[in-house]
Design goal:
mainly beta, 5-stranded mixed beta sheet, 717 residues, 22-stranded antiparallel beta barrel, 6 helices
């Protein structure tokens, strides 16, 4: 297998070099003091450099004529200057310090920002798609951060002792009901949304804002992109299928629209990489999305986004209940998501943001033990969610702000198991008030509360939340956070019992962070108390409870090794739950006590080559062994998880198209990943839960016309 990869990767390298122009210059502040670490780049090109200690910079480019050059540095206002590349004169770039913003403390407890607009950025959007092993999936990339668990057999983001259901996803403030593709039992599904759709990502591992609700553990807040820089077209071809895209910007730069489509068919791939289960319908998906964006005023923006997915797959494998027989699973899925948002300034410091969205998800599932059942089991499910959201904000002085908001959701759930039907409808309303109050530039408090009411549960709740942060010096700060968080039980329980109540979690968080130009260090401790969790024995009730406590570390460095960027995360978790059919409080099967990740990225400028690797370790997780007495419930452990992913990305130009060649592979060393065990009803046989194949690889080429998107296109699949 590896003999096949070597010549394929070698084909990605160029046979010739193009003529180059050298661009040199120096960057200073307004007082003529040299600035180091300034990012200088040629607009519409990947070419650029970082200024040295004396402020000087130099880079080569194949571009010609008049072009725009940008310079950016945290704490300074970015600039954009026009220059003639045919001139050999050095450039002098002067950046002005944004003194007030640089000195301000920010809310940070429990929150990782991933937006270029935040000065406490930990992961930028590009990091999400260039992390080895993540395969351009937002959730997979976020699993490299502390707090996230390495759960490979269930969909969702498992955070700090919480289930995947306890982490909610929001796009432009609105809840996404089905953020993951429909999957099959014991195999995790990837997220539906491309990271290229978003300009900012906030991963709150606890203590998140009162603006959001219905997540006991965590909130993943995504902010969609605005207008593109310029018009562009893209074409991709990979080992799992082709893709096309268009992004158009009007001449007045006030309107833009885009369209993307990709088709995935894993039948050819499965011919090369054999799977644990035999595919009877190879996974096949058609994804399409469109967007329209228009500036309604200097500060106003209307955004419309529509996405649709059609997919199907089917597998069969050995039956655990009937040795020698085969069990078959088939699924057909249709998903549609729409999102419309508008923001505008109202004057006198007031701003408004309105949004509405609608989504529908339909699954048709067929399960059969071949030769043992008179007819297969047929399951049909449909989930619909309509919602509206309005937020008013008012500036209180220069930095403090007050937010007032309200939202309404109307959700329906319809399911049919053979001839048994189970449906429910819920009208959910919520309102919130929250204020960021800067007592001094070094000391800020966020105080808020959220009111929620569910017509299905016939019960209201009030969730107070508070955060404090104090800046120790220009680079360091400490923060505290507290909050009450409520969530409706999972639909699979509400279908059959409408008398359940909210689940509740109380969060306490303390954090310290030190962020400099090239390095980030964060450490956090937390305690979370669970109340009113769902129990399924002797009947459905809210008598469950639990706790989660732990400590986390994060370190990122871009200076130690030239042209390299790496980060290390570590989580220690102590958690126990008494929920579902548990006889007493124990460590749940989705929680590992120790988790650590090392991500390394290295850029070789002379070869225009990006190399990356991600190593992940997690201690074994509990699993249920029915042959144990109740006193030893969940005492068995899986093997420790050890996995290494790599990627190789070559950036070049083919004709007039900026082109990226991509090669990525997960679990390169082929370690057996053990997620747990399934037992037969007579307890005599068991099968291991693990990935479909020891490793996954992807090989692809992406071409972009009109704008240099080589780096953006890395790992798009």
């Amino acid at each position: 297998m590896y003999k096949l990869f070597l010549p394929l990767v070698c084909l990605l390298f160029p046979l010739a070099m193009q003529a180059q122009t050298v661009v040199t210059g120096k960057v200073t502040d307004a007082r003529k003091k040299p600035l180091a670490g300034v990012n200088i780049s040629l607009v519409g090109s990947y070419d650029g450099a970082t200024s040295a200690k004396d402020g000087s910079f130099s880079f080569t480019t194949s571009e010609k004529g008049e072009r725009l050059i940008t310079a950016t540095l945290a704490g300074f206002a970015s600039i954009e200057v026009k220059t003639d590349l045919s001139s050999s004169a050095p450039l002098l770039l002067v950046l002005k310090e944004t003194v007030n913003e640089l000195k301000m403390v920010t809310i940070s407890a429990g929150s990782f920002e991933a937006s270029d607009e935040k000065k406490n950025t930990v992961l930028k959007p590009l990091d999400i798609v260039t992390t080895a092993g993540a395969n351009a999936d937002i959730v997979s990339a976020l699993k490299t951060l502390p707090g996230a668990q390495q759960v490979g057999e269930k969909e969702g983001l498992f955070v700090r002792g919480g289930t995947g259901y306890e982490t909610q996803t929001f796009i432009d403030g609105m809840l996404v009901r089905n953020p993951f593709s429909s999957g099959m039992p014991d195999f995790a599904a990837r997220g539906r949304f491309s990271p290229f759709l978003f300009k900012g990502t906030t991963f709150s591992s606890g203590g998140y804002s009162a603006q959001y609700g219905q997540g006991l553990s965590s909130a993943l807040v995504l902010e969609s992109i605005d207008l593109p820089e310029r018009s562009s077209y893209s074409v991709g071809l990979g080992s799992v299928g082709p893709s096309v895209g268009i992004d158009k910007l009007s001449k007045d730069k006030k309107k833009g629209y885009g369209f993307e489509m990709d088709y995935t068919n894993l039948w050819p791939y499965f011919k090369i990489m054999k799977q644990k289960q035999e595919p009877v319908v190879a996974p096949e998906y058609l994804n399409a999305s469109g967007n329209y964006r228009i500036k309604t005023s200097k500060n106003g923006m209307l955004k419309i986004f529509v996405m649709g997915t059609v997919g199907r797959f089917g597998f069969k494998g050995e039956s655990l209940e009937y040795p020698g027989s085969k069990e078959e699973f088939r699924l057909n899925n249709q998903f549609v998501y729409t999102n419309v948002s508008w923001k505008e300034s109202l004057g006198n410091g007031w701003k408004i943001q309105l949004g509405t969205s609608y989504s529908t998800n339909r699954d048709r599932i067929t399960m059969d033990t071949l030769g043992k059942q008179p007819e297969p089991t047929r399951i049909k499910t449909r989930q619909d969610l309509s919602q509206f959201r309005a937020v008013l904000s008012k500036n209180l002085g220069k930095f403090s702000v007050l937010r007032l908001g309200s939202e309404y959701q109307y959700g329906t759930e319809a399911s049919k198991f053979n001839n048994l039907e189970a449906d429910f409808t819920d009208s959910y309303t919520a309102s919130f008030a929250e204020a960021d109050v800067y007592i001094t530039p070094r000391f800020v408090g966020r105080l808020g509360t959220r009111y929620e009411y569910s017509s299905l549960l016939r019960s209201p709740n009030i969730a107070p939340r508070a955060s404090l942060a104090y800046k120790l010096d220009a680079k360091s700060q400490v923060a505290l956070a507290y909050g009450e968080f409520y969530q409706k039980p999972e639909p699979q329980y509400l279908r059959f019992d409408h008398n359940l109540g909210y689940m509740r979690a109380t969060h306490y968080i303390a954090s310290y962070q030190h962020i400099s130009q090239f390095r980030v260090f964060r450490t956090e401790v937390f305690y979370k108390q669970y109340h009113d969790l769902i129990k399924t024995v002797p009947s459905y009730n809210n008598n469950g409870k639990g706790y989660a406590k732990g400590a986390e570390l994060f370190w990122r460095d871009k200076k130690l090794i030239k042209n390299a960027d790496y980060w290390i995360s570590y989580s220690w978790l102590d958690t126990k739950r008494d929920h579902l059919n548990f006889p007493y409080e124990v460590q749940p099967d989705f929680a590992a006590e120790h988790t650590a990740t090392l991500v390394y990225k290295h850029f070789i400028p002379d070869w225009m080559l990006n190399l990356g690797a991600t190593y992940t370790f997690a201690t074994g997780r509990p699993y249920y062994n029915p042959n144990r007495p109740q006193s030893e419930f969940m005492t068995d452990r899986t093997r420790n998880l050890n996995t290494l992913g790599i990627n190789v990305n070559y950036l070049t130009t083919v004709g007039k198209a900026f082109t990226v060649f991509v090669f990525t592979m997960s679990n390169v060393i082929g370690n057996e990943q053990q997620y747990g065990w399934r037992y037969s009803s007579d307890k005599m046989r068991r099968s291991m839960i693990g990935p479909m194949a020891p490793r996954f690889f992807y090989l692809g080429m992406f071409m972009s016309f009109g704008i240099d998107r080589r780096q953006e296109m890395i790992d798009r699949q």
